[in-house]
Write a structure and sequence with these properties.
Length: 155
């Protein structure tokens, strides 16, 4: 084998190994690339208990129940499906019923989403693009959301 052939074999092998590594990484990230799952997505995909995900939607009006030791229960909805959420800890200042929220955690065996992190919108006019898109998809988008956000959420 000549020097040129060895060099081509080495380069070809390196490119092949790199392609396999990229394919394995993309396969591993396939389900977690989405910023959050709406309640309808969770119900349709039948996510196994214990699988860590992000759940996003609106806090259902009238569902917030505060318990002892900073325990909180509420429901996240996208207008079609509701998922009960249990959280223990201090909620963000901007957290309230009827507002957008993203909860990080896992479903337990009884279908309750056990959250370990709660994220709320950062000001009065902001709505994450993903939440806006999910609301539009479910038919619960209100035109005044886009006006409040300066038109940025409706683009």
């Amino acid at each position: 084998m000549t020097r040129k052939q060895r060099r081509l074999v080495l380069i070809g092998s390196g490119v092949g190994v790199l392609a396999i590594a990229v394919a394995l990484m993309l396969n591993a990230f396939r389900d977690s690339i989405v910023f959050f799952n709406s309640p309808s997505d969770v119900a349709e995909r039948h996510i196994a208990p214990g699988t860590r995900i992000r759940l996003g939607g609106l806090v259902k009006d009238g569902s917030l129940v505060r318990g002892n030791n900073l325990s909180i229960r509420f429901e996240v909805t996208d207008g079609k499906t509701e998922i009960p959420v249990a959280y223990q800890g201090v909620l963000p200042d901007l957290f309230r019923e009827g507002q957008g929220v993203v909860a990080e955690g896992a479903l337990n065996g009884s279908g309750v989403f056990a959250a370990d992190t709660i994220l709320a919108k950062h000001d009065e006019t902001y709505m994450p693009k993903e939440v806006a898109d999910a609301l539009k998809k479910s038919g619960h988008w209100k035109d005044d959301y886009g006006k409040q956000a300066g038109g940025s959420a409706s683009k």
